[in-house]
């Protein structure tokens, strides 16, 4: 019996995929990054490991958790709200500075 390249357990013919010169369970043949289950028609091989086309290391376009649209939007909102919070303090200090100038004159 042949063993799975990912989990090491026996691969029976009904559940076997032979790709990248190795045997895999159908469920074990998934992208190393996002875990999307792959088929012999939609995988990319890099250093004998399977990847989906999005996480192909040759493209150097790994999608990190930090770069998801939700997190990018949250970062923008956080930055915008901190700038809004910063303006009243700046306006307050500039008005205090103006008052000091007026009182000196």
TrEMBL record:
SMART domains, per the entry: LIM (SM00132)
InterPro entries: LIM-SH3_domain_protein, Znf_LIM
Stretches the record annotates as Disordered: 76-105
Any Gene Ontology biological process: monoatomic ion transport
Example of a GO cellular component annotation carried by this entry: cell cortex
Entries under SUPFAM superfamilies matching the protein: Glucocorticoid receptor-like (DNA-binding domain)
LIM zinc-binding domain ranges (all copies): 2-64
Primary residence: cytoplasm
Keyword annotations from UniProtKB, A to Z: Acetylation, Actin-binding, Cytoplasm, Cytoskeleton, Ion transport, LIM domain, Metal-binding, Phosphoprotein, Repeat, Transport, Zinc
Described function: Plays an important role in the regulation of dynamic actin-based, cytoskeletal activities. Agonist-dependent changes in LASP1 phosphorylation may also serve to regulate actin-associated ion transport activities, not only in the parietal cell but also in certain other F-actin-rich secretory epithelial cell types.
Matching PANTHER family: LASP, LIM AND SH3 DOMAIN PROTEIN 1
Descriptive protein name: LIM and SH3 domain protein 1
Taxonomic source organism: Maylandia zebra (zebra mbuna)
